[in-house]
Design brief:
Blueprint (H helix, E strand, L loop, with lengths): L1 E8 L3 H8 L2 H7 L3 E8 L2 E10 L2 E14 L4 E9 L6 E12 L6 E12 L8 H25 L19 E2 H21 L9
Parallel strand pairs: 3-8
Antiparallel strand pairs: 1-7, 2-3, 3-4, 4-5, 5-6, 6-7
Helix pairs in contact: 2-3, 3-4
């Protein structure tokens, strides 16, 4: 499953670059994600907690980070497995930064790839799950922008200055309910918004 997202941040590109290269900062913006240890060589121990209906899973695995300052691009990739449900997940997020439409702004382009295997894979098909993934991405963007605005852009700032926060489990079941509600509302809105002849009232 591939998701593409573009947005503008009202912060200088160097400041945005520093935060994207702070793996803990990025993880804290993604619902259910957490960095729990360091493995060296830009590799980390990570965990992703997910709840879909009656199934609750905690994917433990590795996260790798790479970046190319000369191109203003980078990527975060990871894979893990849940010991209880025997589900497996892998994914990556590639990002690139460009000058924004106004001075001191940054244009961000993100491409995410998500793959599921095992019992949770049944939820990884169809347009509804695509919408859930889109909402997760939108939540990440909103969290990143909010935290970025509260983070002072100081010369020589270090990614290590990020302080970890406790991660909340990603309730995909709740997102599924919201998506279904929006679809039902849109359906009945279209139904009652038409006359018997099929023209809008």
């Amino acid at each position: 499953m591939r998701i593409k997202k573009s947005f503008d941040l009202q912060s200088p590109r160097e400041h945005v670059w520093n935060r994207f290269n702070d793996v803990r900062f990025v993880a804290e913006c993604l619902p259910g994600a957490a960095i729990v240890g360091e493995l060296g060589g830009n590799r980390y121990k990570g965990r992703m907690a997910v709840k879909i209906g009656p199934i609750a899973a905690a994917f433990d695995g590795e996260v790798a980070v790479e970046s190319h300052k000369q191109l203003w691009t980078g990527a975060v990739s990871g894979r893990g497995a849940d010991s209880k449900s025997s589900s497996r997940a892998s994914g990556s997020m590639t990002w690139s930064l460009a000058a924004g439409a106004v001075p001191a702004a940054t244009r961000v382009d993100i491409v995410s790839d998500i793959n599921l295997a095992g019992p949770l894979a049944q939820f990884g098909k169809g347009p509804i799950v695509q919408e859930i993934a889109n909402r997760i991405t939108e939540t990440f963007v909103a969290n990143f922008e909010s935290r970025l605005a509260a983070w002072p852009a100081q010369a020589g700032e270090s990614p290590a200055a990020s302080r970890p926060r406790p991660a909340r489990s990603l309730d995909a079941g709740g997102l599924l309910g919201a998506v279904l509600f929006d679809r039902v509302r849109a359906f009945f809105g279209g139904l009652f918004g038409r006359s018997p002849k099929g023209t809008r009232l």
